[in-house]
């Protein structure tokens, strides 16, 4: 003890906390030279990437990027730091992989209709894998009915205007349907100005939903007799291929916006109708299983973001 003596306390130096998440974000941003591209890869927002980089630079007390109107580039300090960090992150990942007994804790086999697979699942699958590295997804893409009690399918994602009583169901999103056709047919029948003229067009029928046109026209207050010019295909995917050159098809418009735009098809908003929904279907008692819940929650967020 010191009596009557003033002892000056030296300030203790505390090393700044560096988050591993910041380092992972920095590694990706440095590799792609873009906060937006880094956000896409990491499945977060560009503002979240920017904020994490700012926190890292604040903790280090030095900027790591040159932010120019032409783009984003590592400065000299950033280049040095990145070389070290990427090596360290690789070592951490390698060590983790070596001791992890089984990469996948869960495996899900999912039966999907093609629009959901092609426009939502596959373009965003990398994000799901990053968010849920312990879940292995196996896909079966078709429109066939699945017996979830006897098959190895865990979840079926299906469009339906009415559901049976077997199994558990969760509604993912309502579906807006619209007729679509190619530009030549639209011009020939003046469909853009008079969309009700579709009753004079060859209709594309699907054998797996034979009453769809009849039900649709009835709701719209239109009548059309069957015509020898009508076209019959086996399923929805075939109808979407046929409509590029033949007839008018009913499309699941809220799921097919990108396809319609890509192929320059003509759609008819005045004939739009909420008709059915996309459902997740499981065997009884399985809808609340952890992996299934994670997948359904993720898919619902994708479908909602497309509204």
Automatic annotation (TrEMBL):
The keyword Transcription is annotated on this UniProt entry: yes
Domain HTH lysR-type: 18-75
SUPFAM superfamilies assigned to the protein according to its UniProt record, in alphabetical order: Periplasmic binding protein-like II, Winged helix' DNA-binding domain
Pfam families: HTH_1 (PF00126), LysR_substrate (PF03466)
Presence of keyword DNA-binding: yes
InterPro entries: LysR-type_TF_proteobact-type, LysR_HTH_N, LysR_subst-bd, WH-like_DNA-bd_sf, WH_DNA-bd_sf
Top-level taxon in the UniProt lineage: Bacteria
Gene Ontology MF, one: DNA binding
Family matches, as PROSITE patterns: HTH_LYSR (PS50931)
Protein keywords: DNA-binding, Transcription, Transcription regulation
Similarity comment text for this entry: Belongs to the LysR transcriptional regulatory family.
Official protein name in the record: LysR family transcriptional regulator
Gene source species: Acinetobacter halotolerans
